[in-house]
Every structure is written in structure tokens, then in C-alpha cells.
Give the backbone structure.
Amino acid sequence: MNRFDYVRPRTVAEAVAAGAEPGSAFLAAGTNLLDLMKIGVARPARLVDLNHLPGLAAIEHAPDGGVRIGAQVRNADLAYDPDFARRFPAVAEALLSGASAQLRNAATVGGNLLQRTRCAYFQDTASSCNKREPGSGCDARDGENRLHAVLGWSEACIATHPSDFCVPLAAFGAVVEIEGPAGRREVPLQDFHLLPGKTPERETVLAPGELIVALRLPAEAAAFAAHSRYAKLRERTSYAFAVVSAAAGLRMQGGRIAAARLALGGVAAKPWRTEAAEAALLGAEPGADAFRRAAELALAEARPSGENEFKIELARRIAVRALTLAAAGTPDRLPALPASPFAPIPGGLHG
Amino acid sequence: MAEVHHMRHGSNAGQPITRRDGVLKVTGAARYAADNHPQGMLYAVIAAARIARGRVAALDVAAAQAHPGVVEVMTAANRPPLAVHPDDKSVPFSFRMDLLQDDRVRYAGQPVAVVIAETLEAATEGAALLAPRYRAEPVEVTLDAPGAFVTEVVGVGVPGEQHYGDLAAGLAAAARRIEATYETPTQFHNAMEPHGVVASWDGDALSLDMPTQGFALTQMRLAALFGIRAEDIHIRSPFIGGGFGSKLLSGPQVLGVLAARLIGRPVKLVLTRAQMYGPVTHRAPTRQTLRLGAAPDGALTAVHHHVRTVTSRFDDFLEPAAGVSHTLYAAPAIATTYEALRLDIGTPGFMRAPGEASGSLALEGAIDELAAACGMDPLEFRLRNYAEVEPISGKPFSSKALRECYAQGAARFGWSGRPLTSRSLRDADGKLVGWGLGTATFPALMFQAEARAVIRRDGTGVVETGAHDMGQGAWTAFAQIAAESLGLDVGQVEFRSGSSDLPNAGIAGGSAHTATVGSAIQAAGEQAVARLAELAVADPRSPLFGADNIGVVARDGRLVRWDDGSRSESFAEILDRAGLEMVEGRGSAAADADAAERYAMHAHGAVFAEVKVDPELGQIRVTRLVGAFAAGRIINPRLVKSQYYGGMIWGVSFALHERATLDRRTGRVMNADLAEYHMPVNADIPSVEAILVDEEDPHVNALGVKGVGEIGITGSAGAVANAVWHATGVRVRRFPIAMEELLG
């Protein structure tokens, strides 16, 4: 690990100013950043510690049903907030399916959005990686790429975004609140992460010094609470990133789908919301045929980036599964094996 | 040694007492090697090669030296001289080491320099600043590489190729034949405690805190390398955080010793997790082709087990995977053959059940396939081919309760309702359900060990032996044996171990430590008691006077006449009257060559697995595991069950999780951390049970103990894989089983 400066701003304005200086990196829980520093992938000249900023750790439930989540809220605290879990069960389920209990206790909401990819070639400083070192090439392209992207990738980069949390956030229209040197702005989560194109080193819309201060989920997102699930395939039951995952929400009216939300995880450099698939579900009767059609649409542009063609079909199937589970209704308690295909449904369904 | 805090069920051999060191471990008071900080200690960090073949062209030593806190950089240019070349293998079980002898890189992760600094952080950054430049050469790291050669010798000088009967005739006579190729991946040691050492020199005397599975061999190798006397090397290893065959003496530990030599101060060197994927041995991949034939009634007519596996370019260890076919199933013709490749990898080595683990996975799969081809239940098929004598040698077994293992395991599991056809069971949620069986086997070995036992004037005992507790509970089991042999409660015996200045206990390996060291302890204890008895029966003042023809027994701190329990005397009284501070006994143990010549000696078991598989998504869950094992006498059922659980869970890992991903172009391990190198978590193991099947063995050793450390992994992986087939109808022969193989 390189030697670095450490600053502890007392206000958001100080943090933004410090963060705007070249070589700065914001430090929240550090569950990802410190690991990357230890393996030499991140070598910031200055860590700007956000842990002592006031006012960023609140979960504020609005009367209309929406919620505003401070960027410093810990993943576990959010998932176990009873009001939050009741209104946004798929988000809570996604949170609890990620990482390990220890990491969830530390990791923050804001940091989760900025997780770096788990691509082994990004993490291995002896490999070529356009994301880590622009223009150096992509060793993943012809390497061990079984779990790499099938949507939105480019010749420059085939990495995926690892977050579970972001998948339902994209599906349910979360908004990111950002403070920066040029003031405050808001960006829909769906537009927050960038596809790699020719500049895979640019992963989000954040400019230097810009700081995530909060996330909002709108009231309309809570309208999906009764039919809202996250499903995740992984190579062990916890502490593993998604092979593919899906968040689904349905609003039912008279036995038909009045509104649908669907986003996929583990397939692209961003959580992959597909409005075409959502539109195809409108007015449909919930069931295998409609869900399969939606899944086909969601993956319509998918193509393998390596030895990962199976992920395309697997992503369709996890989309169908998430929609099927959502249609069946949200369980009234989060499953003991969150998002697992083996999660028994505890008790009754969400009232 | 640890205080005894919990004593629940009595104390001596056969009782399931909890670990004597359990409280120390859960409170963090147990001092592992890396917990030591001698005065003036520096930290050493290895810089590891990022290429797998070629030469180090340049190291930026100046940059590392300039980093604040860095004291010295050790490279091939300034590394202290050694008395013998690091390739020297004159000490048994030695592997060639990479000790900065030249600029050659032979595998990714090979040490190319060591940075010594005042802090771990400075040493770590110094190692990064070396920024080696290489002249890389093309590498081969896969089983598909060219250049395979036939070999008759595998493991450490073990004859691998063996032929019994007429294979061609056996295959020709078969009514049912199968040929199947199974592939197992590279696996790396991931003991919780990484390899490390804290080394201090005092002239030519060397003091070491380090985890090791064998004091004497480690002393001998270090003595040879440094040209010093073995008795001048003192090693403390009171606790080991897992060994599994990787912790004899590793090259990185020798580099720590070299660093201390170079700098003249104590040095600590501990590998990072990532650095364990290279220089500390691993389990090599295998591609195993099984050709089996069976008569119409299911009787095997032929078994051919062919193994393709790999070793490094510079040393030899070939996974002896076909060995299980020598012993498991009766057949008139058995052949085991090998071909090998030299690759640009670190040398593979011992990793829990080396050979048996991967070999039994393939054999148990093929047996399952043939049972299905014969339309027979897999258990019935195995019983049909039950080996009454060891097939390859014709020797009788010293004991073999495998039939009882099958019966008890099957009863507990509920095997009898199993439909023959695959993909025919579903649970209420629509998940596919499958049941699979695997036979477990591991040889019952003996090495050599010595022990010393003392009965003190206060009536308490001391037993000493330089043994190794790698987490398996040896300190507790040995104390139980010691107490039993001395006729004392375990709380009255001080058991001293884990240090090289105690009697030589050999190595903790081959699942033979309890059998070997336990036998030596038993002999030492018996001799101490005999000395005490000599004092008593010859003394007219003793109530035991004249008992020589009838004999006495040690019990509860007293010597008691066999024929008259009312006549007894305490140890303390005997010693007190004799005016002695103590009596001492010495014991040793080794394989009984005569018994080994007459008998085949193996532990056995049967593992039953239930899996559920999501029919659309291919995700697998092992919902139940039941293993029934027969391994001779059981010293501590609680600890033995823990060994079985651990082995069975590793079997699940083998079948479903574990795989090192080597980039075929660079030879680097691309998942060298515990986040990406998957093994099961608690949530993957909802139910595991181990049944201890009674077995008496008068031949294996004085205690009748067979090993339990490795057998649990054998059979288990096969049981899980066979259950996946039974659930899905898909026979996956490449491991770990991936969900995409089951998508249909």
C-alpha cells in the first residue's frame, strides 16, 4: 500500500473541496477501497474520510411512501429498517443477499454504488486492463471470462458491476443526490453508471469532487411492495457475487399486470433495467408465457463476451423466476436465505 | 499446556471430552507462530513473480531501499550462502525450493526477493516498489499441454502403475462396459493460518516459531541447508491453524530464516493469502479415465483406472489418484496407469487425502455409472463387488467394517426408498431431488514416534512428545491416551508437546499421528507404571508386595491388584516410601512390518448425500450428508466426528465449489483469495451427520487406532456428484459441477 495523506472533513463542503483535488479518494467504510489499495489497484494520494460528516446517516421515510437514505447508512441498517423492508422488500432482500454479515454491517449505501468490478484482470495489476490503465488492453477478453458481461460490453471492457443493491434500485427508479464543486444535482440511478464504450475507466457520471450524499426511492416504488422480489444465482449460498440476478416488481389490478419493473444484475457494467420488457408485461396476465416473453426482450441484445454464452439463457431464466416470485407475492418476512432459489417462503405473504 | 476448563463425560480414552485448548482458542489466548514478537524483530515480505516462466530482468532495489522503514532487500545477489543447493532432497519428504538461487522464474507466485523493514506496511510497500521486470517465456499450465510421458512412479516414490489379472480379457468378457473421463481442478491450500515463521539466530543456533507438521524433518532440512546441527535448531509450534499436508517446511519459511541471517535480527515472515497460491504446494488437476466392465449379475470383470496429471518442471509429485482402485472393489482384473505432464506451476504436493480424494471421486462416479448401466441400486452394486480381501494384493484386511458402514449409513439416511431412475424425485417446491452414495477409504498408516511419561511424587503425571496439533484436537486425544496409560484422570496429567526439544514424534501426516504418537505414549505410560509396579511389588511394606505373578493395574492414581481390588496403593505412597521424586517411562512406536506384510490396512466408510437442484436454474444444494465410518478404535468421538465433518464438507467443496482459475496465457491464479476461490459457507451445509461404526483391529498398532483425518473427504465428493446425477439425469464429469452443466 502506498503512503497517502488522510483528511477528515467536518462538512460536506469541505469533503467536496478535498475530494476535488487530484489524487483524492473518498473513504466511506472502505470495504472495497482498502482491499484495492492493498493489492495495488488503487493508489490514492489522499483519502478523504467521510465517516465524520454529520447528517448523512439517516433513513427518512416520507409521508407519501418514498424514502431518502443518507449515503452513510450501513447496508445492514437499511435492510433491517422495518419500514424500509416493508415498503421496498426487494431492495432489502438484495442487500441481504450481498457480501457477508460483517461486510454489510460496515458497507455504506453510497459506497455500494461505487463498488468496482470483480473482474480478475482489473484486480491483477500484472494484467492489461483498460479500466485500470486506459489504453493498455483487456486481458479478460480472451481470458477467464465465464462470469463476464453479456450486455452493454465493448471491445475495451467486458466487466460487470457487482452490486446486488443497485439492481432493484435501478428497477424501482431510485435517484442519486450528489453534491459537487458546482453545487447539487440529482441523477436517476439508471443513468448513474456508464457503459464502458471506449472509456471503461469512466464508471459513473460523477465528476472529481462530486459526492453521493443520499439516495431516494420515490413513493411509486413502494406501490410494488406486495409483488416485489430479488432472485440471485451464485456459486455458494452467501459471500458470492451474482452469476446473474434479477429484481422484479409488479403492480396487479384485476388479475392483470398494471405496472412492471425488471432489472438484471451480473450481466453488464451497470444494473440493467429493461423498459421494453416492462412495457411488454403491461396488461398481461402474470404467467410463464408473459414472463418468458419479457425475459426474451430483456436479453434481446445480449451476446457472449467470451465463454459465457450460458449466462444469456440463465439471465432469462432468473428474470422469469424473479417475475414468478413477485407475482406470487412478497413474503411477509425476508427469507432466511435471501434471494436464493432455495429460500422457503416464510409465513404468509406481504399484506 | 492449557488448563482443563470443561470436563463433561469422564476423561480418558473413548470419551467425547471437549478440546483442552478450546478456551484458549476462542478467547484468542492461544499463541500462534505469527503472534510472536521477539525484541528487535523486523518484518519480511516476499515479492512474488507475476510470470510463470522466464527470468527476472530487473528489480528496482533502490526504490525499495529508499522507502522509509525498509532496512534491507534480499535478492539472489545478497542472499546468505547455503550449505546445500535448495534443490537438495536428501532429507525425506523434501521438495525443491525457491530460495533466490538465481534469476529463473519457474511458476507464478515464486519468490523473487524479500524486503525487510521496521514495519509490515513498509516491507509490503517496499516489495511493491521492486516492480520486477521480466523476460517472460511462453507457459503451459493446463492438462491439455503437449509432452505427456508415461510414469510408473507417483506421489513420493510410490509405484503407481500396477496390473492384476488380465484386463483385456476382463473387459472382453463384460456384459456391460462403461468408459468415462472425469476431470478434477487445481486446488490450493487455504488453511486459516498462512505459512509463516518468526526466526532468531544466536550464532549458529536457530530459534523458530513456526507452524510445522514435522519437527525432526524440518530440523534436518534446515540443518542441511544452513550447515548447522539439527539439535541447535529449536522450533516451537504449540498451535497450528490447519496444515492438511502443506506444513512440513516451505520455501517461504526458509526465506524468513535467511532474512534473519542476513540482517542479524529476528525476522517475521508471514505469507499473504494470495501468496499461498504458489510456493506452498497444492492439489494438482487430474483427468481420469475409468474403463469398467461387469457381468450380467453386476460383478465387476475389469477395472482400468488411468490418470493424467501434472507436476512442475523442476520437481516431482504426481497425484496418486488411481490408488483407490487397488483396494476398493473386487475384480478379477485391475490395472492402474499414469501419464504426466510438466507444467509451469509450483510443485504440487500433499493436500488432504492426496490421490484418494480426486481418485475416489472418479472411481465412485464410474461405479455409479456402471451400476446404472446394470440396472442395479448403487449400494447393491457396491455390495455385489465388496472386496473380502484387498483386490490388488490378495491380502486379508486387518479389519474392515465397511459392510456395517453401508448398513448403518443407509438406515440413517433412509436409502431403501431410492428409485433407480434418475430425475424421478421432486420435493414440494418442485425441486429435483437426488440421492447419491460414495465409498470412503484411506490407508491406515504408521510412522515413527517416541514419548516420555513420568509419574511424579505427588501422584500426577507428565507426558511429553514433540507432536503437532493442527486443529484436529491432538492435544486432547493424546492427553486422554496418556491419562489412560498412566491410570490417571486426564486432569492430573500434564501433557507437553508442540516443541522440538521434546521426544521425536515424527510427522503429523498420512492420518497417522494419533495412531503413531498415541501408541508411543501408551508404551511410555505403561513403562512408567511398570517401573512403579516394580517398586511396589518388591517392597514388603506395600500392600502389593508379592503381586508379581498376578500383576497390578494402574487405576485412578493407584496400583491395584488384578485379583483383589481391595489391595491397592496410591502412586504417591509408593514414590514417597521409595524416596523417589518420580518414575519415568519411555515408549516408541513404528509400523509392525510383520503385520503390514500379512494384512492390508485401511479405514473405510460410506457417505450418503441428498441434493436438491433447481430444474430451471441449475443451482444445487446439498440438503443432507450422512457418513458412516469405521476406523478402528476411537479415542475421542467428539473430535473424530469433527474430523469427519470437516472432511465431508471438503467433499462438498470438491464436488461443487473449489477450483483455482489459472490464466492459460500467463499461468497466474486469477482467483487467489477467499472471496473468489470458493468453498462452502455455513449456509451451504444445512445438515451433516457422522456415524462412528464399531471396529476392532488387533493388527494396525498397539492402540487399534486407524486414521480419521483424511478419509472424510473421500467418498463424499463422489456421493454429492452421484446425487446430482440422480436428481437431474445429467452426469457431470468435470469438477466442480457448474450450474450451466445442468441447464438442459
